[in-house]
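Open question from group meeting: does this chain pack into something compact, or does most of it stay loose? Before anyone orders reagents, we agreed to write out a predicted structure and look at it together. Recording both the input and the output here so the notebook holds the full record.
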Amino acid sequence: MRFRFRHISILIALTICFSVGCSKSENDERLEKDNALIERELKSKKINFTKHNNVYHAIQKKGYGYMVAPGDSVAFWYVGYIFGQGNFIFDTNVPEIAIKAGLDTSVISFDPIVVIAGDNKLIEGIGRGLIQCRETEFASIYFSSILGFGGHSVGPVPAWSPLGYDILIFSVINNHIKAEQKSIANFVSQNEGFVQDTIGFWKRHVNHSLSETYPSFGDTIYGWYRERILNGEIVNEAPNEGKMMVLDNNYSTEGLMFGFMQMSPTDRLELVVPSSLGYGIHGTSGVPPYTPLFYELRLDSIK
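Structure tokens returned:
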């Protein structure tokens, strides 16, 4: 059976509950009720999530590209559904999912959604949720009806329905990212031997052993590294005698962690790491935002 209704675009900035006369206290009460429902459901399914600005974010498949920031041009695929009602799908720009869900494909555009993050052209919950997402990440965001269609019944979506969206972002771009990518391209073109890894950094083996023993996430290793900005300025350097390091989420940068995970004892490796795997869109006191890094690594042993 096909569901025939006006296509619900996520490129909508609806005036929600306030347009039908709800008071602030009524909106707060509805928001609290919906949030409690969402949290209860996620916890019952043992889904790990974070909550920011009243939007819940759960990673389905981790990505390692750029975090979305206001003003970025973002392109993504999505699936929209009513949360807590069998996750009934009412909208998507993915053809095979639309067909499987019985949607009327004659009224749906199957082009990627391309928006400027933070420009208020999206349903409010999606706009807030995008800022929590990352390029190449497959994630789900969930939010109250207050941040969705509110008291409006839209197509098959009843009024006051909490919503969920599965989102796969495949492109995040801004002028800072363009400049960074250009500086990385110039650096690797002037230094022979670098090859790009699937995770996103560039690597060059200085010494590569024949061993196929590699550390894994959570392992303790001993080694050395030097961290520089591409202009040669040193940011960090480990003691030369061999620093004990644990490869986990508390590591200084993802690029450094994943670099060591591609090494065997006695290996030496050089990396050019984009800021998405470095200090990101915020930087640190010594590293500006959107700054690529150059690493020299040596792995001595795996505990």
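Observations to bring back to the group:
The chain has two domains: 17-173, 175-302.
The chain has five helices and 14 strands.
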